[in-house]
Amino acid sequence: MKGIVFTEFVEFVETKYGLSMVDQIMDRCQLKSRGAYTSVATYDVQELLALVVELSRQTDTPVSELVVEYGRHLFRFFARTRRSMFEHFSRCEQLLESIEDQIHVDVRKLYPDAELPTIRFERLSDVMSKVHYSSTRPLADLAEGLILECVVHFGEPMEVVRTDLPPGDGTLAEFLLSRSR
Amino acid sequence: MPEVNVYQRMFEREREARKQAEELLETMSLELYDAYSQLKKSSDEVFAIFRSVTDGIVTFNQTGTIESLNPAIERIFGYSENVLKGQDIRVLLPQNKLDFELDDEFWVDRCSEAQPKFATQGINAHGQIFDMELSASKSSQAGKDFYVWVIRNTSQIRNVERKMAVSQRLEAIGQLAAGLSHEINTPIQYVHENVKFLRDAFKATEEVLVRVEREFSSAGSYPTPGFEESFRQICSETQWDFFRKEIPIALYETLYGSKRVTSIVQAIRDFAHPGASEMSSLDLNKAITSAVTLAANHWRTLGEIVTDLDRSLPNITCHVSEINQVILNLLINACDAIAEARAANPDRLGKIVFRTWQEGNMAKLSITDSGVGIKRENLERIFTLFFTTKAVGKGTGQGLAIAHSIVVERHNGNIDVVSQLGEGATFIVSLPIQPLGDVPPGDVVPSGGSE
């Protein structure tokens, strides 16, 4: 997984729980990388999962809740640092629709080895659309956080309903987006 | 407030991360350098190809402004690169080819797969208009559309094709040469014999006249009573009655023979003539008759020719010598097919039927032979240049290909063939009575004829 997801996770933990918490979870996880993350390198996704589980234990917060929260944080980070890209979109659906055919294509140009989830967007009507998430990693919670913050970013009232699909381990999920009339 | 050792560990992690980032940066720099080197090499190769191809390549933007061009464009149009860059692309087209806008509709048509290239005309820096073939395509780079024209000057190719067609026409005449010499020799021989006869006849006539004159001079102004008897004797002695009967026949035959030679020579001239670049009027029925005359010795021993010609067929406007060539090629082809069939079965009767008729604004001509026919798998290839099923030395595979090129490409007509193997073949040629674009509005009758 790309280093930026790790460095931002560290940033997220430090902002929300303080530097001591970062130090504590890293110390307990005995990471192969020793927690020395740089955004342009690639690291084992298991390190991130270990860090989240340890954070959950330390803060007594469910893992899924933490990951959703981190997804929101990550979206805000992208919106802040990739302004030029976000300028192309005026609506939430436009951005979601472009993930697979545009954003992921550009990511692969920069990082040919990037292992990305598949995000399939389907417009059901003027007010309803569906996002299908599929990944080899159980990060549907992260996708949920990203989608929820995307809705907030564009400032349009919209309901997001998530349905986990079999095998129910967070690798497959559908998000139904309903725009308020 | 975190303890000092927490900061210490954070500092260690950050330092480790920085090392990783530096190593990664170095690796990526090397990869980038390699990639750049590869890209530069490829780019140099592509640029070298772009510079060296003989076809002209020019690119321009959506407003038609020329952005790049290769040296072939400079050679074809006679402009230097500096002059052309920044100019409107339409500077390369003559006035009558500017009837388009660089809008989507034009490009949808021109850049479609179905029409990857088309024939048009260009104009060079000296104002000379020339034929060219243009392949158009539309591309996009960095979100901006641009257009690419690949241009080939076809004037020289057309010249070669024309010379080839002329040489094939002469070759066709050459094929008929032996027969033609016989065709001319026969009437010349009897013209010669008849003239010799007329010379003798004149001597006889002269003798009659001299002896009659002598009779008159010895008898004074009037014939003597025995003149009639004497005249009969003179006529008998000089065989005058025979000459009197034969002279008109000899004269008629002589005139017929010389007329026949004249018509053969005229037919040769029609067919061998290089042809004017302008179109002119042609009586298709007369052209068929000329071809039949020209090839008479070729078909006479093979069977018969029947003509079923529509006398009301209007003259067509065409390249006359080229259409003559088409008819002669088809006739020679029919003769060869019959000869092949008769070689296998000498009792088989050869027959060639020419038909003409009008269908809408098209003049139609068909030639049916009772030859060997064409195999189904060869039907699609018979109009291909240098394709022949004839024996070595018998055909070069140019006749039908050139006929097809003349009818389809030069006259916007059509040429079809139907054949039953072993039964013969029918070639149907359709030619516009007026060239396309010259038909007055309302004159066009739907194809299929009247009811």
Protein architecture, described:
The complex is a heterodimer of chains A (181) and B (451). Chain A contains seven helices and four strands. Chain A is α+β, with helices and mostly antiparallel strands. Chain A has two domains: 3-61; 88-179, H-NOX domain (Alpha-Beta Complex), CATH 3.90.1520. In chain A, strands 1-2-4-3 form a four-stranded antiparallel beta sheet, covered by helices on one side. In chain A, α1 crosses α4, α2 (19-29) crosses α3 (45-59) and α4 packs across α7 (140-154). Chain B has four domains: 1-48; 53-153, PAS domain (Beta-Lactamase, 2-Layer Sandwich), CATH 3.30.450; 156-274; 276-451, Histidine kinase-like ATPase, C-terminal domain (Heat Shock Protein 90). Chain B is elongated. Mean pLDDT of chain B is 80; it is low at 437-451. The chains are: A alpha+beta (181), B alpha+beta (451).
Characteristics:
heterodimer; A: 181 residues; alpha+beta; H-NOX domain; 2 domains; 4-stranded antiparallel β-sheet; globular; B: 451 residues; Beta-Lactamase; 4 domains; 5-stranded antiparallel β-sheet; 5-stranded mixed β-sheet; 12 helices; 12 strands; elongated; disordered C terminus
Straight-line N-to-C gap of chain A: 39 Å
Radius of gyration of chain B: 39 Å
CATH class of the largest domain in chain A: Alpha Beta
CATH superfamily of the largest domain in chain A: H-NOX domain
How large is the count of helical segments of chain A? Answer: 7
**Low-confidence parts of chain B, pLDDT < 50 over ≥5 residues?**
437-451
Q: List the strand order in the largest sheet of chain B.
A: 2-1-5-4-3
Q: State mean pLDDT of chain B (0 to 100 scale).
A: 80
The description of the largest β-sheet of chain A is: 4 strands, antiparallel
CATH topology grouping of the largest domain in chain A: H-NOX domain
Main sheet strand line-up of chain A: 1-2-4-3
Main pleated-sheet profile of chain B: 5 strands, antiparallel
The span between the termini of chain B is: 106 Å
CATH architecture heading of the largest domain in chain A: Alpha-Beta Complex
Number of strands of chain A: 4
Beta-strand content of chain A: 15-25%
Query: Which sequence of SSEs, written as H and E, runs from N to C of chain A?
Result: HHHHHHEEHEE
Shape summary of chain B: elongated
At the first level of CATH, what is the class of the largest domain in chain B? Answer: Alpha Beta
